[in-house]
C-alpha cells in the first residue's frame, strides 16, 4: 500500500487549467438515490418584536418550494444538462405530490416510492430581511417494505445509468447503501457517495466519497497539520477501498486524495450568501463531469467553481452550464 505521507501533493488553481472545455453533458446519465425532501421557504418582513416573547414577528409575503436533499442533487445535475433520474421515498401526501411536480418541471425522471405510513420530509425555513430566522423539520423514516422495493428498483434501473450518486442525509432511505455500492461497482458504474453519520464502513468500495470537514473529523478525529490530515485521509481511503476521497473544506477549498497523489483546490473567492446545498452542487457537478469523461483534476476545478457560485445564492440553488463555462 502507498505510504500516505509520501503521496505527491499539488495545488490546483484557475490558472492551472485556464481553458476547460465545456463537455457534452446531454449524453451523461446520472441516477441519484437517497433521502428526498421538500424545501419550503416563507419570506416576510420583520418590523417588530412579539409582545408574547422576545422573538421577531414575520409577516409572510411570499412562499417558495424547492427540491431538497437527494432531490436537490438531482436538480443540480439536471440544471447542468445531464439526463438524471431520482430514486427515493416520499409520503402519500400533498408534499409528495409537490415533489413529483417539481421533478417534472426540472426534467428529472421520477422513480419515487410512495410510503403511505410516513409523511414526506419537509424543511421549512422562515426568512426575514434576507436572513434565516427559523427552520422547522418534519421527518419520518421509511418502512422496511418500501425500502425493499426501492432496492429491487435500484437493481432494475442500474443498467440505464453511467453514474450513481448516493445522497445520504441520515434520514433512513439508504439503509441498503452497501448493497447499492456493491451492485453499482460490479456493473462498472461510477459510484459517488455523500456520507453522513458515525460509521463510514457501509460506504466501502465506492468510487468517490465526499465528506465535509466536520463529517470527516467525526470519523478520524482532529489533526494538527496538513501532513497529519493527509495521513488520516489516505488511511481511511485505503481502509474503505475507495478510488478517491474528496474532502470539502469550506473556506479552505477542497482536497482530493487518491492512491497516486493529493490535489488541493483553493476555495473560489466569492461573497458567501448561503451555504445551503453547496455540497449537493459539488457532488452533482463532479459526477456530471466524470460521467462526460473529464479528467479528475478538471472535474474538481469545475465542481469547486460551481460550489463558489451557488453559495452566492439564497437557499438550495443550482448552477447552470452557462454560469460554469460561459456557453
Automatic annotation (TrEMBL):
Q: Where is the Carbohydrate kinase PfkB domain?
A: 30-318
Keyword terms of this UniProt record: Kinase, Transferase
SUPFAM superfamilies, A to Z: Ribokinase-like (SSF53613)
Residue ranges that the Swiss-Prot or TrEMBL entry lists as coiled coil: none
The coding gene here is rfaE1
Top-rank taxon of the source lineage equals: Bacteria
Name used for this protein in its record: D-glycero-beta-D-manno-heptose-7-phosphate kinase
Question: Source species, please?
Answer: Massilia violaceinigra
Q: Does the keyword Kinase apply?
A: yes
Q: Which GO terms describe its molecular function?
A: kinase activity
Q: Pfam family example for this protein?
A: PfkB
Amino acid at each position: 500500500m502507498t505510504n500516505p505521507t509520501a503521496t505527491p501533493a499539488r495545488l490546483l488553481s484557475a490558472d492551472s487549467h485556464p481553458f476547460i472545455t465545456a463537455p457534452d453533458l446531454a449524453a451523461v446519465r446520472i441516477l441519484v438515490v437517497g433521502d428526498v425532501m421538500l424545501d419550503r421557504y416563507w419570506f416576510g418582513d420583520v418590523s417588530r418584536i412579539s409582545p408574547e416573547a422576545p422573538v421577531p414577528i414575520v409577516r409572510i409575503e411570499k412562499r417558495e418550494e424547492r427540491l431538497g436533499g437527494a432531490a436537490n442533487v438531482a436538480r443540480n445535475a439536471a440544471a447542468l444538462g445531464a439526463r438524471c433520474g431520482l430514486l427515493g421515498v416520499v409520503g402519500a401526501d400533498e408534499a409528495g405530490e409537490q415533489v413529483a411536480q417539481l421533478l417534472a418541471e426540472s426534467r428529472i425522471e421520477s422513480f419515487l416510492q410512495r410510503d403511505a405510513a410516513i409523511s414526506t420530509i419537509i424543511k421549512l425555513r422562515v426568512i426575514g430581511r434576507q436572513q434565516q430566522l427559523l427552520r422547522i423539520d418534519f421527518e419520518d423514516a421509511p418502512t422496511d417494505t418500501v425500502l425493499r422495493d426501492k432496492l429491487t428498483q435500484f437493481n432494475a434501473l442500474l443498467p440505464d445509468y453511467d453514474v450513481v450518486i448516493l445522497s445520504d442525509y441520515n434520514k433512513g432511505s439508504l439503509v441498503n447503501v452497501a448493497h447499492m455500492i456493491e451492485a453499482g461497482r460490479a456493473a462498472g458504474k461510477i459510484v459517488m457517495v455523500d456520507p453522513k453519520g458515525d460509521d463510514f464502513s457501509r460506504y466501502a468500495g465506492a468510487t468517490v466519497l465526499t465528506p465535509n470537514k466536520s463529517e470527516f473529523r467525526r470519523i478520524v478525529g482532529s489533526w494538527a497539520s496538513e501532513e497529519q490530515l493527509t495521513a488520516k485521509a489516505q488511511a481511511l481511503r485505503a481502509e474503505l477501498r475507495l478510488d478517491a476521497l474528496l474532502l470539502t473544506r469550506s473556506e479552505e477549498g477542497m482536497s482530493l486524495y487518491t492512491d497516486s497523489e493529493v490535489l488541493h483546490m483553493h476555495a473560489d473567492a466569492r461573497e458567501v450568501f448561503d451555504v445551503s446545498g453547496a455540497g449537493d452542487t459539488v457532488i452533482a457537478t463532479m459526477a456530471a463531469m466524470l460521467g462526460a469523461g473529464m479528467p479528475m483534476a478538471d472535474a474538481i476545478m469545475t465542481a469547486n467553481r460551481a460550489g463558489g457560485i451557488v453559495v452566492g445564492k439564497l437557499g438550495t440553488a443550482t448552477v447552470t452550464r452557462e454560469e460554469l463555462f460561459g456557453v
